[in-house]
Each structure stands twice: as structure tokens, then as C-alpha cells.
Amino acid sequence: MHSASSIKQKFLKKWIMGLQLCNSSKKNMTIMERRKAIKLSADLALASVRNCTTRWSRALVASASQNDDNQALLQHIIGSDAAKHKKASIDVVANSTTSVAKKIASKKILKRSWGIRRVRKLSNVALKDPPYSIAKRLVKKRTQLLKNLVPGGESMDAISLIEETLDYMVWLRAQVDVMRSLARASERLDGK
Amino acid sequence: MNTPSSLPEMLHCADMTVLERQRARVKWQQDPLQLHAQSEGQRYYYGGGGELNGAFGLGQSIESLLGGGGGGVVFGDVPNHQIKPDPGVESGWLSSFDLSGLAYGACGFGGGTGLDANFAINRTLSCPPAVVAAAVSPAVTPAVTVEKGKESAVSEKMTQAGRESSKKRKTDKGHNTKIEDDSKGKRIKGCPEEGESKIMVQSNSNNNKEASASTSKENSKVSDVPKPDYIHVRARRGQATDSHSLAERVRREKISERMKFLQDLVPGCNKITGKAGMLDEIINYVQSLQRQVEFLSMKLAAVNPRLDLDLDNIFAKEMNPARTASFPTIDMLSDITNPAYLPFSPTQTVASCSGMEIGINPDSGLRRTISAPLSIPDTFVDSSCFSVIPAALCTTFPNSQ
């Protein structure tokens, strides 16, 4: 499909486009605002270069589209088929939020129903506590952490989470590369 | 050795009816002869089991003998040093018993070679007995000399047996792969299972729960071995957890496969074993990348207040030349846009340059190839960026100012 270089070029183009739009839409931004705008545009550019085919990119777009201020930017970067993507991404968001809510609710119910028996069994379990259960708990904890890191990870299962993490990592790296080179360039320019 | 994987099954079978046990054995070694031997083995096993337990105290040797069906017969015979083959047993069988029995006795004498002897027995017994008999029959005559107590002959014969059995191991694919793949975890696996099996031998109670627990544990341990026949056996046992465990195994395989990719991708992750440690690395890496993005955006924001427009304009010329209007040098020719176009393309080549140095990275293959080299050209890119961009930008600045 793409080579890494073409990916980076595309990303840079989209990003600069987004930056431009931000710049033109809002004058005299504070440094924090600028930062936010830069990050948002970079994220959106990344997502749009990824064609919104992966879950993390859709989640990025979705999280951006929740804020009304970003609509113009979104339209601009994502482009003509923004509507389609937005729909999909909103679906993603809705799915994730509902599923998370459901999960929490079901967990609560489960806890309540197990509460009585738990107390009795607790001493028994604590006595045994086999090593593999400790490992399992560790892995679970880390998986949860990873879910929080990867955009849209809350609604993924283990396999897709790892796949998405793979993909996300590669693209994040490309993003970092481009941003770094641009930062260096602008720094250099600033020094002149 | 296939005892670690096969034994719990076998021992578990010992609690079942004879029919079930026979079926299990047939699955394990597709040899009809085994059925005869097995029933005998069982008889001897029940007769002399306790005594032998006391006499040898070698859980492994007991297992190995049990594992090989016919071994039970040898088991009963060896302590008395007399061979009592059943009249119904074929002569081929007899010879094989001779050999293994004597070998076992020999290993009892020569303490040093005990372990090897055990292995050899294991191997020979794990093969289909008929083949063993055929292959080993020339070695029966030396076996007589063994009885006289010549250990050199013993070792010779042992090696012979070992060789032959190893030959057969190659033919014996299903078990073979299991052996190879299990060899790593064998030591760890062997101990608890030995213990369990001992317990089961001694108690002989029909403790279903324990049995299922042990099998499930075994399931998880052998999970990384894709063997259709093995799964087949599992499925046939007809336990409620089976479909679940199958699905679980497939899932785990998938996860571990992807984890391997991730391991390749994350620098410094390939030395770490264990899922938790790997996840730690991955989390760290992703977090560091995200922080880098944050930091870089902050940096850009900090650098840009004065420069934002400039950079934007520089890039804007590339995007839409009309925007050069904001420049003071508007009255410069329209082909200013072309020189002004230049600074962007170097940055583009900078970006692409990093791609070039990575090599050809088609998107699909991106995951693997990108891993190591990307961190190195990074510095290259950035150093080249110093040289390329400012030069290009400087050319525009005199123009614009």
C-alpha cells in the first residue's frame, strides 16, 4: 500500500492543513490553546491518513467530534467523506460508552450477588492463592492500562486490543518522527 | 518422553472402567496388542503396585512403566527377577518384555545409569509393542548375558534399544512433536504431575474434581502445541469444559502470536519473557510515544507564536499559492512561489528520507521491518534536517525580507 515516507508526507500535509485552519480561525491563542490545537490537528491528521479504518483512528475522530469547536477542523481534515466516518465513529463512541456502562452495571450486580458467598470463601481463597492467579491478575491490570492508553481501547477484547496497539504504535511513531523533524526545523528557523 | 503429558490421562483412566481405559489407550497408541497387555498390566499393577512403590520409590520409573501399557507386566516381574509371560502373550511380546525387564533390573544395579535406563525403557515402551518386539528381538540374546550381571553389555544393549527407539520416535510423529515442545516445560510440569499421579495411585479414589483440575492444567500447559490429533483426543473425553478450553486455547495462541509481533516492534522487549513483563514494556513504550507527541506539540506551540504564520505560509505556498499574498514580497514575481515551494519539499524529503532509510516498508510489512531501523535513522533524519531545511528556508528569507 503506502511506504512509510508517503505516509509521513500525507500526514504532514494534513497536519499543516489543520494547523492552518486553526490558525486562521483563532487569532491570539495562548500557548496552551496552541498546544491543544497542534495536538488535535496532528491526531486528526493521523486518523485521516489511516483512513479511519482502524478502531483507534475512529476513536480519535470520535473523541474530537464530541467537541463542537472541532467540527470545522474535522470537516476540513477528514474531508468529504467526513459524514460517513463521523457516523461510524459516533457509533464507536456510543458502543464503547454503552458497553462500558453495561460492564460496570453487570459487575455491580455480580458483586452484589456474590457478596454473601465471597465472605465465606475469602479465607479459603486467600489461603491457596495459586501463582497463576497472581500472574493473571497482573496481566489483567496491565491490559486495563493498555486499554486506557490506546484510543477506543475500552471496548476491545484482548486480541483486537493487541492488534490495534500494534497498528497504533507504528503510526504514533510516524507521527512523532514528523513532529520532531518539524520541531527541529522550526526551532532552527527561530534561531535565524 | 511422553509420560508427562500422557500419564495423567492414563492414571485417570485407571479409575474408569476397563472399556474406557482401553479406548483411551487405543487413542494413545493405535495398537490392538496394547489391549491385551493393558489388562495384564493392570492386574500386575494392582497386585504389585504398593510393593513396588515401596521398593523403588521412583515415581518416574513407575510412571514410565505404567505409561507403556505392557510395562505393567515387567513391573510385576522385575523385583523377583523372573519372567512370567502369560501364555496368551505372543513371543514377540515376550522378548520385548525380556529386554525391558532386564534393562530395568540393570538400571536398578547400576545406579549411575539409572536415569538413562529409565529413559530407554520409556522410549521402548512408548512405541507400539509389536514394532518393539520386532526391532529388539536380535537384542534378546545379549539380554541373557545381562542377567549374569555384566553391565557393559547392559549399556550396550541400552544404547541399542535407545537407538532403535529413537528411530521409532521419528516415525511416531504425534508424540514426537509433543515431546519436543514439552521439553522446555517438562521439568516444571513433571514434578506436580508426578505428585498428583502418586496421590491418585495411592488413594485410588474416584476424585473427579481433582482429575479434571489436573487435566485442565495440563491443557493450558500444552496449549502452545498445535496438534490436531491431540485436540481430537481432548474433545472426545466429553467434558463440559472442553469446547471452552479449545476456544480458550485458540484465543491464547492468537494473543501470543500477536504479542510476538509487538515484541519485535517494541525496542528492548525481546529479552523479556512473560506476558506481564511484555505488557509493561508495551505500555511504557506507547506512553513514551504519547508523551513525546505531547512534548513536541508543546514545543511547537512554544516556538511558533512568532513563527507560526511563517511556517504556515511556507507550507501554504505549497498547498495554495494564493496565500503568498500575506507576504510583504507580494510584488515579487509569481514564480517566487516556485522558490518558495522549495523549502517545503526539502522537509518533505526529510520526512521521506526517514522512510527511505528504513527501506521499503509496505504497509502490511510495516510492523516487522520498521522496528529496529527506525530509531537509528531518526538521528540521521534530524541531523540532515538541520542541514537541509535551514538552507532552504534561508533562501526564502532573504527573498521575503
Could you explain how this protein is built, in words?
The complex is a heterodimer of chains A (192) and B (401). Chain A has 192 residues and is mainly α. Helix content of chain A is 83%, strand content 0%. In chain A, helix 1 packs across helix 2 (31-49) and helix 3 crosses helix 5 (82-128). The model of chain A has no long low-confidence stretch (mean pLDDT 73). Chain B contains 19 helices and no strands. Chain B is elongated, with a radius of gyration of 35 Å. At the A-B interface, helix 1, helix 2, helix 6 and helix 7 of A face helix 15, helix 16, helix 17 and helix 19 of B. Chain A: Pfam families: IBH1_N. Chain A: It comes from Eucalyptus globulus. Chain A: Residues 5-67 form the IBH1-like N-terminal domain. Chain A: InterPro entries: IBH1-like (IPR044660), IBH1_N (IPR059002).
What keyword list fits this structure?
heterodimer, A: 192 residues, mainly alpha, elongated, B: 401 residues, 19 helices, disordered N terminus, disordered C terminus, transcription (chain A), transcription regulation (chain A)
Briefly summarize what is shown.
Chain A is mainly α and about 190 residues long.
How would the blueprint of this fold be written?
The complex is a heterodimer of chains A (192) and B (401).
Chain A: H1 4-25, H2 31-49, H3 55-65, H4 71-78, H5 82-128, H6 131-149, H7 158-191
Helix pairs in contact in A: 1-2, 1-7, 2-3, 2-4, 3-5
Chain B: H1 3-14, H2 18-28, H3 33-56, H4 59-67, H5 71-77, H6 91-109, H7 114-126, H8 129-136, H9 140-147, H10 151-171, H11 173-182, H12 186-203, H13 208-221, H14 228-236, H15 242-265, H16 275-319, H17 337-358, H18 366-369, H19 375-400
Helix pairs in contact in B: 1-2, 1-4, 1-12, 1-13, 2-3, 3-4, 3-5, 4-5, 4-7, 5-6, 6-7, 6-8, 6-9, 7-10, 9-10, 16-17, 17-19
